[in-house]
Amino acid sequence: xxxxxxxxxxxxxxxxxxxxxxxxxxxxxxxxxxxxxxxxxxxxxxxxxxxxxxxxxxxxxxxxxxxxxxxxxxxxxxxxxxxxxxxxxxxxxxxxxxxxxxxxxxxxxxxxxxxxxxxxxxxxxxxxxxxxxxxxxxxxxxxxxxxxxxxxxxxxxxxxxxxxxxxxxxxxxxxxxxxxxxxxxxxxxxxxxxxxxxxxxxxxxxxxxxxxxxxxxxx
Length: 219
What we know:
Blueprint: H1 2-24, H2 33-60, H3 63-103, H4 106-218
């Protein structure tokens, strides 16, 4: 019976160790998953051997000891089957985690794809908004340029009118100058004529005086 109990103690320690490995396996890095799986398989194999040893010892027991030990062996076998199923589930989870690490999680890939599409859509909307703003700015600049051009045309038209008015004024002034020149020339001619007449009258008057003096002196 002592040997049977030793097998029980070793089995219990193995099962506790296996359960701890199963509990902490998900926290391991992907590179350590394979080593953890092999360690669990090794401990399961050793636990199965211990149950086999207990079954052999069970055959050697008699009476009450055998009746007392047999249910425990069946319990250990059922427990080991459950641990083995948990181990397979753990291995499947680790394999899936490794696959996701290598290939990516489809759900995450879909989320990433949707996020990328959303980012591209937002980027496209932003580019469209920027293009619209640039178009509006260009339209505003065109309107401003048109307004400036219209103002310049109005200024040029006003300056042209001023130039035309100045030209007309100059032409009128030139006409007035021509008339003034003609008037001055006429006045000059009249002045010369009057001067000649006056000179002639003076000469005639002097001649008459001289003639009168001569006549008086000759008598």
